[in-house]
Amino acid sequence: AVSSDGSITKGVIGTGASWTDQSVSAPIPLEGISFLDATKGLAVGDGGVIYQTSNSGTSWTPLTTIHTEILNATQLVKGTPYGYAVGNEGTVIKTSNSGTSWSDQNAATTKDLLALAFIDANNGTIIGKTGTVKRTISGGADKYSAVVTGFTSVTADLNAIAFADATHAVI
Fold first, then answer.
1. Does position 89 have pLDDT exceeding 80, yes or no?
2. Measured between alpha carbons, how far is 86 from 78 in angstroms, rounded to an integer?
3. Which is nearest to 98 in space by CA: 82, 118, 119?
4. Region for residue 2 given its phi and psi (left: phi exceeds 0; alpha: psi -120 to 50; beta: otherwise)
5. What is d(CA 146, CA 20) in angstroms, rounded to the nearest whole number?
6. Number of C-beta neighbours around residue 9 at 10 A
7. Per-residue pLDDT tens for 115-138?
8. pLDDT tens, position by position, 12-47
9. For the whole model, what pTM was predicted?
10. Cα–Cα distance, 32 to 73 (Å, whole number)
């Protein structure tokens, strides 16, 4: 779990009864966290900060950031070195080396993006303020498109997304 005071807390899977504060000491709020496996993870937050761990969260290292916008969520894609992060003002960034370096993506929006879900390195959906839903089938090589149907009248902020399988998502 990440918090507005810049801390990270790690829980024991299965019971959730045991939680331990981790030493990240981020000077600003953290907004999102994702793990690739049991040891490698990323945390993102205000000011575009990105922290990386390779020891199950025992210690966190700040990475060079390419943005100052708030990053709201991140996802490392299982079985690949790819990862994505979304943030305010339409920010989408991608890594192809598990977070060491990042590049901009064209989200084709300036709305704040709040969450994302990728089923593999190429196929993903990003969501955000005022019903924003965008999709990529190219890992963001092309701009994200609004080909998702059924959300034309939704104006609420969309905060979370999860894929049940390769073709079914819940927002």
1. yes
2. 18
3. 82
4. beta
5. 41
6. 13
7. 999 999 999 999 999 989 999 999
8. 555 556 666 666 666 778 899 999 888 999 999 999
9. 0.88
10. 4
Provide the pLDDT confidence category of residue 58 given band limits of 50, 70 and 90. Answer: confident
> What six digits make up the tokens of 170?
């819940």
Residue position matching structure tokens 């999860």: 162
As a whole number of angstroms, the distance between CA 112 and CA 133 comes to: 11
- What confidence score (pLDDT) does residue 87 get? 97
Give strand pairing partners of 50. Answer: 44
Q: In DSSP terms, which residues pair with 75 in a beta bridge?
A: 84
13-38 burial code (b ≥16 CB/10 A, e <16): eeeeeeeeebebebeebbbbbbbbee
Q: Strand 71-76 relative to strand 83-87: parallel, antiparallel, unpaired? A: antiparallel
Q: What's the start-to-end Cα distance of the chain, in Å?
A: 21
> Phi-psi region for residue 136, left (φ > 0), alpha (ψ -120 to 50) or beta?
beta
**Distance (Å, whole) CA 37 – CA 67:** 26
